Amino acid sequence: MATHTDDVRVFAGCVTGRKDWPTRPASRVPGVMLADAVSHWELAVVKVTEDPQRPRYSCSLVHEASHRPWEGFNRAQSAVLECAVLVTRLKMLPPEKIDAELEYLKIAIGKTAGPRELEAWGWLQERIAQFRAQHKENAV
Questions:
Q1: Residue 100, SS3?
Q2: So where are the chain's domains?
Q3: Edge-to-edge strand list for the sheet holding 56-66
Q4: Which sign, positive or negative, has the C-alpha torsion 5, 10, 15, 20?
Q5: Cα angle 23-26-29, degrees, rounded to a multiple of 5
Q6: CB of 136 within 8 A of CB of 117?
Q7: What does residue 47 show for φ and ψ, rounded to 5 degrees?
């Protein structure tokens, strides 16, 4: 199953531990999709390539459906997605790089964010603050 969503809270939730989203059953394969999906693909695994670090799954498309028009991501949604990526790299990037990126992303949040984007942004900021607090404790 591949669900396509424009709700950036889902992406922010994945990197901050919030994974409980409303779902509905798939129509042709066992499984569920996000209830508020823009569209979805129902897939069948046809081949598995084992690898200890990155196994690969080859799939065939069983069914696809569009539930509403895809309008793309606006600036605030894109900023949330970029911030979610930064959160996954907190251990790899220097704090100065994180801070510089956040300052730039805050511009889009301030100008175009709606309630969903603000909520997602808040979750990501909380995660960054938690990481920094843990790192500060470990450095002492």
A1: helix
A2: 2-66, 75-139
A3: 2-4, 39-49, 56-66
A4: negative
A5: 140
A6: no
A7: -160, 140
Q: In a structure prediction context, what are the per-residue pLDDT tens digits for the chain, which is 140 residues long?
A: 999 999 999 999 999 999 999 999 999 999 999 999 999 999 999 999 999 999 999 999 999 999 999 999 999 999 999 999 999 999 999 999 999 999 999 999 999 999 999 999 999 999 999 999 998 876 65
Q: Determine phi and psi for 123, rounding to 5 degrees.
A: -60, -45
- Reduced to 3 states (helix: H, G, I; strand: E, B; else coil), residue 93 is coil
Q: Render the burial of 44-70: b for 16+ CB within 10 Å, e for the rest.
A: eeeeeeeeeeeeeeeeeeeeeeeeeee
Helix axes 75-87, 115-139, angle to 10 degrees: 20
